[in-house]
Specification:
heterodimer, A: 589 residues, B: 278 residues, alpha/beta, seven-stranded mixed beta sheet, globular
């Protein structure tokens, strides 16, 4: 290869190179351009000569070219592989990479910028995909964090009045107590219940009732302004918590609040005079918990109601309270378990995609000798506190699996039903729990995957380390795990992610407000998003209307249960219901 | 206390990659770079001032060799965060009577800083300033860009995501005619973190500093270029009209960076202003 190519060769290389070659001045004005670029862009050569190179780019690229490339060329003399688009003569945009080098002015000759532009369609597509994926990941992370923060707030506050709810009250007081004690003052709780609130709701409607509650909240806030905390526990129940020098000061505030609440208020154009009954409890000692105080204030409030309403009553620490009743009830429950007074009812769980029944939740009932059929809310806390919950829990699980075994033999639908059974906090910490579950499954030869154990959020958080250990062991058995009453406690995704959970059950108090209360809709939406963000199912409890069911389906909720579909039914009735609703049409109660 | 103060100073110096050169006992001239670049962009201008002035240069957080870990989206969500940094640099180095040369978006950062601490600055030299880049249909203000243009800019930034990511950036092949430049500068010039560049673009191009122009008590020189995509002549005139103590000089230089493309003319305009302004 001793021959040197002639000038014609170089001209051909310039003009017919497989990429665009251009020369410009420092301002980007084109002074020379090759045939390749002319035909690639479709502009006439005379149009290109004298035009600014950057004027062939979309405006965003023009800004970058001015702020980035021109100074870089000026300072370093070169830019490399800048991604730009070139707008062709027909308006079409073509992805390209641009490299350039600059020769400074010398001997009276102006500076020259030499530019190569080559088509980069494939690479642009690839990079766009990568960047889009990156943005999506960033945004989803930001949305997740936002949803969690929002949920945290919603979970601690009552959406109607904006006051802290029960969990929020506890959280605020924990913070205050951690911040230091209020000297010699003692904590007191004023438990406020409106008189005849139901009558307002019944005669004027829920909207008026809500308006009344908001007014009451505002009055309590301004009347009780200071160091105290005002919270709404539920319905028309409010509490004011503060530190007082003694009972006289606490009841003084109660008397003041009664006066404030008596002032007439305008609700939907009507003048309404409301009143309240207030129970006051002052801490006996520093060790008395908020729950104890609320319970005692509640008792005093009931006495105020009994004594004619619109008055306050102080709970005396010495006075007898329902502890005695409780002991008697405990004895009854113990014999109830022994004598077969417990029942398991089953509530269908509906797959919202297909409207088919995918499983049932087992719910225990107590056939009380005098009080009738009692739901778990009437006795589970007592069972939990006394330790009776262990034999009770074992019995419910055994009974449910026995039923599962029966239905398995009775038809095609029964074989794949999932059975959800509740576990209490105390059971979760019971070292015998895992062997008990394992034995119960083996006894009936039930596929562990068909058993779902539900644990409340509060139970999980009571001792997260112990809970994680139990849950992991249960998971290893192959059973499914669900977080129950989600949204009422900590609602922390950070914690949830640690647990081997398959399902998140959104508390029914939020489902109630679905469609009528934007705060509740936001919570439900957040819960569903959170569940899906960590790859688990979202389940709605307490679905009572077709509207709620369809809203949940639209929100992407996976499963639902509630009176709209069916209430918890004894086994034979449930079987009939299953047979009647096997079609997969929207199920109804 | 002295130790704590020293630590705070060194934090600021490191955060903004502050460099000091020129004549140690000369009046202070501080340079604030604009969007898309870093302090290296002043290289061609500095020789005109190095003999007589103490030169203080820095990188905005997120640019050049600043401490990227110090980037806080909330703080730098408005130009105020950058102005606060600028004032902290002045305080750390105990700078007085600073002549602040500020390019592009930094011109408005300089304006904010001068309103907050007027005694800190003797003059502002605003190179290609714009108080608002987008047009305002409410009052007919012409900034030069529409909202869609800015969206287009963000899309372009995304296209260059990989070109700007330090580790992935292509190495420039270099230029035999500028051998004096180090390979390091060639490859790192104005390199930036792509996510920060995107956020800074949003903050810059959606900022509106028009309302505060009237509160600047400092003498200002406005350097206006011809053919500047980012700061058209109307914008220079607007800034001149609203800055009470300002002079406007129209440079022959074209484009957005006269200190790069025409350093001599730029330096002469500044020196002349400093020599003859009251």
């Amino acid at each position: 290869m001793t021959d040197t190519p002639g000038r014609g060769h170089f001209e051909a290389l310039f003009n017919q190179a497989p990429c665009g070659y251009l020369m410009t001045d420092d301002g980007g004005r084109i002074t020379a351009v090759n045939d390749t670029f002319v035909s690639w862009t479709g502009y006439g050569r005379s149009h290109l000569l004298g035009s600014q190179l950057q004027s062939l780019m979309p405006i965003g690229d023009q800004i970058l070219y001015s702020t980035h490339c021109i100074p870089q060329l000026g300072i370093t003399g070169a830019v490399s592989e800048i991604a730009v688009e070139i707008v062709g003569a027909k308006g079409e945009r073509r992805a390209a990479l641009l490299s350039a080098s600059r020769s400074p002015a010398s001997d009276g000759e102006p500076a020259v910028v030499r530019v190569i532009i080559f088509s980069a369609h494939e690479r642009r597509m690839y990079e766009q995909e990568l960047v889009a994926a990156l943005r999506a990941a960033e945004e989803s992370e930001a949305r997740r964090a936002e949803a969690e923060k929002e949920l945290q707030h919603l979970a601690l506050h009552d959406a109607l009045t904006g006051l802290p709810n029960r969990a929020g009250l506890k959280s605020e007081l924990d913070q205050q107590l951690a911040g230091g004690s209020a000297g010699a003052d003692r904590l007191a709780v004023l438990f406020i219940d409106l008189d005849h609130f139901k009558a307002v709701n019944d005669s004027l409607g829920h909207a008026a009732g809500d308006e009344l509650l908001v007014s009451v909240a505002q009055r309590l806030l301004s009347a009780a302004a200071g160091t105290n905390t005002v919270a709404r526990l539920s319905g028309d129940e409010f509490v004011v918590v503060d530190a007082f020098a003694g009972p006289t000061e606490a009841t003084g505030l109660a008397a003041g609040l009664l006066e404030v609440l008596k002032t007439p208020m305008q609700i939907e154009g009507l003048e309404i005079v409301t009143s309240a009954s207030i129970g006051v409890a002052v801490a006996k000692n520093a060790g008395e918990t908020l729950e104890d105080l609320i319970r005692r204030a509640d008792i005093a409030m009931y006495r105020a109601k009994e004594l004619g309403r619109s008055r306050w009553e102080l709970h005396e620490p010495a006075e007898s309270d329902p502890t005695v009743d409780r002991l008697r009830a405990l004895g009854e429950l113990r014999s109830g378990i022994r004598e077969g007074a417990l029942r398991v009812h089953y509530q269908p769980r509906i797959d919202l995609r297909t409207w088919r029944t995918s499983g049932v939740e087992a719910l225990v009932r107590w056939q009380h000798p005098t009080r009738g059929l009692l739901p778990p809310s009437e006795f589970i806390t007592m069972a939990e506190e006394s330790g009776l919950v262990r034999p009770l829990g074992a019995w419910v699980l055994g009974e449910t699996l026995k039923q599962a075994d029966n239905w398995r033999g009775e038809g095609p639908g029964g074989a794949s039903l999932e059975f959800a059974v509740n576990l209490s906090a105390r059971q979760l910490n019971d070292p015998e729990l895992v062997p008990m579950v394992e034995a119960a499954l083996r006894l009936r030869s039930i596929d562990p995957a068909l058993l779902l154990l539900e644990i409340t959020e509060t139970a999980l958080m009571a001792d997260p380390a112990a809970a994680l250990e139990s849950l992991t062991a249960l998971k290893n058995l192959g059973v499914g795990l669900a977080v129950d009453d989600f949204g009422t406690g900590y609602s922390s995704l950070t914690y949830l992610k640690k647990f081997p959970i398959d399902e998140l059950k959104i508390d029914q108090s939020f489902i109630n407000g679905l469609g009528s209360d934007s705060g509740d809709s936001a919570i439900v939406g957040s819960c569903i998003d959170l569940a899906h963000a960590v790859g688990i199912r979202a389940v709605a409890e307490g679905v009572e209307t077709p509207g709620q069911a369809h809203t949940l389906k639209a929100m992407g909720c996976d499963l639902a249960q509630g009176y709209h579909f069916a209430r918890p039914l004894p086994a034979p009735l449930l079987k009939e219901w299953l047979d009647a609703n096997a079609g997969g049409e929207p199920a109804c109660a | 206390m002295v130790e704590a103060a020293t630590a705070a100073v060194s934090t600021v110096i490191r955060r903004n990659n502050v460099t000091v050169s020129g004549r140690a006992d000369g009046p202070v001239m501080m340079f604030a770079h604009g969007y898309g670049c870093d302090q290296d962009m002043w290289r061609r201008l500095l020789p005109y001032f190095a003999d007589d002035y103490r030169l203080v240069l820095f990188d905005h957080v997120g640019a050049g060799h600043s401490d990227v870990d110090a980037y806080d989206r909330e703080k730098y969500g408005s130009l105020n965060g950058y102005a606060a940094d600028l004032l902290e640099i002045c305080e750390s180095l105990q700078l007085k009577d600073v002549i602040l040369v500020a390019h592009s978006v930094s011109a408005m950062i300089a304006v904010i800083a001068a309103i907050q601490e007027p005694e800190q600055f003797s003059r502002l030299i605003l190179v290609a300033p714009s108080p608002r880049y987008t047009n305002d249909s409410a009052d007919g203000y012409v900034g030069g860009f529409s909202q869609e243009d800015i969206e287009g800019l963000l899309a372009s930034l995304d296209s260059n995501y990989f070109a700007w990511a330090e580790a992935l950036a292509p190495m420039a092949m270099g230029n035999p005619e500028t051998p004096e430049l180090s390979e390091e500068l060639r490859s790192s010039f104005c390199r930036t973190n792509p996510s920060i560049a995107r956020h800074f673009a949003r903050v810059t191009f959606l900022s509106d500093t028009r309302q505060v122009l009237g509160r600047v008590p400092t003498d200002c020189l406005i350097l206006q270029c011809s053919d500047d995509l980012l700061a058209p002549p109307e914008v220079g005139t607007y800034v001149h009209q609203h800055l009470e103590r300002s002079s406007l000089v129209q440079l022959q230089a074209t484009g957005h960076c006269p200190h790069v493309s025409a350093p001599k003319a730029t330096a002469e305009a500044i020196l002349q202003y400093l020599a003859f302004s009251p």
